[in-house]
Structure formats: structure tokens, C-alpha cells
Design brief:
This protein is α+β, with helices and mostly antiparallel strands. The chain has helices spanning 32-39, 79-93, 173-181, 219-231, 274-277; strands at 6-13, 16-22, 49-54, 63-69, 74-75, 97-102, 105-112, 115-122, 152-155, 159-164, 191-199, 202-209, 213-215, 238-243, 246-252, 257-262, 265-272. A hairpin with an 8-residue loop joins strand 3 and strand 4.
């Protein structure tokens, strides 16, 4: 059977880029191999994450957002993608506020003068919730490595380890990121962030993203960084996080939810051609 070209949008949040498919009107089931082929930057469309908009199961939600990494695996949260989907849904509905269902829970998005604000939900800081391999102080996670300081562990829908260093620019993410992502302390792997205080209530953050690699921006890592910096007593609850792709404006609310505001951009629309969708003959 000949497959039809599949319409998609290319979007990004601060350079963290996505292939976005709308599967609300037609069923769509893609294998990990198909997602990997489409996500390949040399032979496919190319993206950090692959997003599928599906019908919501929760009656309070406008849509369900499925998030797949470059490697084809599904992940729980992506802050930059959430802002992009909020952009699409606010334009579609004509409303300022929308609700997006994810496997990590219901996320609320709002169109603002500064871009799109998203409530990323509650920050979890207990070791079982990260998850970590064993009981420990999540404010100073012991990794038994001499080349990095003990990180702060946070779950913002997915696991994060934030390392505070004097100069985030000096860290070779490509060299150190893979080993930290797969460290035995993180049974579900972890997103790895290196942060330094660059000005009062401003963080410089660079990220090795689980299942992706070095990324220009990671919204959930920025959320984890603000929680970590407040817990360490380094900043107030309202800070700016500067990443390679640009700034995000963050607030860790008193109810433990993390509010993130930043840009969301649609780049172009196109069609995925059938050869990227066809499964190779066995």
C-alpha cells in the first residue's frame, strides 16, 4: 500500500526544534524507527523532539500532546514544545488560555505580551519521585565523581540533575553529558544541566538532554534549574534563565508549581514523504 505524504509543522522554542503532527482527525501510529528517520537532521526533516497532537482524554483539556525524542522513545515533558502547542491551540480556539494533556498531567498555557506562559506543574524533590537509585539528599546527590560537584535532583515531569559550576561555558557537554545521563544513580536516565549565576537572579544554563544530546534550550531543565537555585539559596523564586537559544522567564510559585514564559515560533509547514514512513521489508 502506498502511503500518503503526511502534513507537519516545523516549530521551535528558543532553537529547541520540533516536528509537529496533528493526529486529532486521523489515527496515527508511528514506530520508534519511523520517528528516528524523520528526526534525522541529514536524511529526514530533523528535530530535537517529535510532537503528536492527539484528542484529549481529559474533558478539561483542549488536546493531548505526545512527546517523542530523537531516539523514538516517549518522554513525559517538554517545556518548549508545550509553549509551541499552546501557540497553536490559542490561535485555533481564539482563547487566551488553553489546557494541554500530557502523560505527566494537565499543563495550562496562556498567551501573554512576552510570548506564552506555561504552568509546568509541581516540582517534585523526593528521591523516589526523581527517581534516584536509592535514598539520598536530593539537594546534594552523591555521584562519586571527582570531575563534577554534587547536583540537585528535580522532577519536572521528567528527571533532571542540575550542576552549579563557576562557568557553565567551560563545560564540555558532549564529553561529559552521556556518562551523567546514564549514571547508575538515575535509573530512568536524567537530563543534565550545568548552571552558573551570571547576574543577580539570572542563571546561565547549558543542557545535555536525555535521548537528544546537546540542545540550544530545554524548558523543563530551566524549570529544574530555578527550583535547584532557590533550594540552594542562590536566587529568589523569580529568575531569568539564559540558554544558548535565548532567555526564559521563570517563577517557582508558592504552591510548588513552576511558571515558564518565553517565545514559540512556527518556521514552516510541509509534508513528510512516504519513503520516510515506509518500514523496511523484513
Amino acid at each position: 500500500m502506498t502511503l500518503a505524504p503526511l502534513p507537519f509543522r516545523k516549530m521551535h522554542g528558543l532553537g529547541n526544534d520540533f516536528v509537529v503532527l496533528d493526529a486529532r482527525a486521523h489515527a496515527l501510529d508511528l514506530s520508534e524507527a519511523q520517528v528516528r528517520r524523520i528526526s534525522d537532521r541529514h536524511t529526514g526533516v530533523g528535530c530535537d523532539q517529535f510532537i503528536i497532537i492527539r484528542p484529549a482524554k481529559n474533558p478539561q483539556a483542549d488536546a493531548f500532546m505526545e512527546i517523542r525524542n530523537q531516539d523514538g522513545g516517549e518522554v513525559e515533558a517538554c517545556g518548549n514544545a508545550t509553549r509551541c502547542i499552546a501557540k497553536l491551540l490559542t490561535a485555533e480556539t481564539g482563547r487566551v488560555n488553553v489546557a494541554i494533556e500530557t502523560v505527566a498531567g494537565l499543563l495550562l498555557g496562556e498567551k501573554t505580551a512576552q510570548g506564552y506562559a506555561v504552568d509546568m506543574g509541581e516540582a517534585r524533590i523526593e528521591w523516589r519521585d526523581i527517581p534516584l537509585a536509592g535514598a539520598c539528599d536530593t539537594l546534594h546527590v552523591p555521584l562519586d565523581r571527582d570531575d563534577v560537584p554534587p547536583p540537585v535532583a528535580t522532577n519536572i515531569g521528567n528527571p533532571h540533575a542540575t550542576f552549579f559550576v563557576p562557568d557553565a561555558e567551560a563545560v564540555s557537554l558532549a564529553a561529559i553529558g552521556p556518562g551523567l545521563e546514564h549514571h547508575p544513580m538515575f535509573p530512568a536516565r536524567a537530563n543534565i544541566g550545568f548552571a552558573s549565576i551570571s547576574a543577580p537572579n539570572t542563571l546561565r544554563l547549558r543542557v545535555w538532554e536525555r535521548g537528544v544530546g546537546v540542545t540550544r534550550a530545554c524548558g523543563s531543565a530551566a524549570c529544574a534549574a530555578v527550583v535547584a537555585s532557590v533550594r540552594r539559596g542562590l536566587t529568589s523564586r523569580q529568575i531569568r534563565v539564559d540558554m544558548d537559544g535565548g532567555p526564559l522567564f521563570m517563577e517557582w510559585l508558592e504552591n510548588s508549581h513552576v511558571l515558564m514564559t518565553g517565545a514559540a515560533t512556527e518556521v514552516y509547514q510541509g509534508h513528510i514523504l512516504p519513503h520516510l514512513l515506509e518500514e523496511p521489508a523484513s
